[in-house]
Amino acid sequence: MTKEIKEILEQAEMILVGIGSECAADAYEPAEIAEFYENLAKLVEGKPYFVVTLNTDDRIWDSPLAREQIVAPCGSERAGNVVTDEQYDESWYLPQWEAYTKWVQNTLHRKLAVLELGVGFQYPQVVRWPFEKTAYFNNKATLIRVHSKLAQVPAELTERSQTINENPVNFLKK
After folding, report:
1. Tens of pLDDT, residues 43-95
2. In what helix (H) or strand (E) does residue 103 lie, and over which residues does it extend?
C-alpha cells in the first residue's frame, strides 16, 4: 500500500468498503483470506465504516469486522440463499441494507474514503456504480479502486481517486 493511500485512509472521517469477486475465498488458501480480512479490519479500526460484499462465501462473517457494519446483498452459501439461486429471498438482507443506506446518507460533506477491493462488473449496480456516485456527489470523498484488471475510474473522478492495478488480497498484505 502506498504512503498516499495510507494517508487518505488515516485522514478519512468515515470509510466505505466494497468487496468483490477478486476477494472470493475459493481463489485463495483459507489463511490468505483470513489475513485479508484481518488487514482490512486493522485499516478501518477506530473509524465509522460500512462494508458491502458481493461475495457469498461467508468468510466475512468469520472476520474481526463488526457484523452490524456489513451487508451481503448477494446472499450466503451457509444459509443456502444465494442471488443465483432460483428461490433467492432478498428479504433477509433488506434490514441491513436500510442501515447501510442511512449510513451512506450521513457521509455527505464528510471526509470519506471509498475503498473498492476487487469489485469488477459482477452486479455493478450494487457496489461499483453506487460507490462512484457517492464519491462524485461528496466533494470530500476519495475513491480508491483496487482491481487486477478493472481499476479504471470515470473521468469525473480522476482528480479524487487512486487506481491500483493489483490483486486486492495481495495489496492488503503490504
Report:
1. 999 999 999 999 999 999 999 999 999 999 999 998 889 999 989 998 989 99
2. helix 94-105
- How many CB atoms are closer than 10 A to CB 147? 23
Residue 166's pLDDT band, with cuts at 50, 70 and 90, is: very high
Residue type at 13 in one-letter notation = E
Tell me the three cell numbers of residue 28. 485463495
Q: Please list the residues that pair with 70 across neighbouring strands.
A: 51
Given a contact cutoff of 8 angstroms between Cβ atoms, the answer to whether 44 and 70 are in contact is no
Q: How far apart are CA 96 and CA 88, in angstroms?
A: 17
Q: Are 99 and 68 in contact (CB under 8 A)?
A: yes
Q: How many residues are recorded in the chain?
A: 174
Edge to edge, what strands does the sheet with 161-164 contain? 70-71, 49-53, 14-19, 112-117, 141-146, 161-164
Q: What is the DSSP track for 92-151?
A: GTHHHHHHHHHHHHTTTTS-EEEEEES--SSSTTTTHHHHHHHHHH-TTEEEEEE-SS--
Round to whole Å and give the CA distance between 115 and 47: 13
- For 126, other C-beta atoms within 10 Å of its C-beta total 20
For 112-117, what is the mean pLDDT? 98
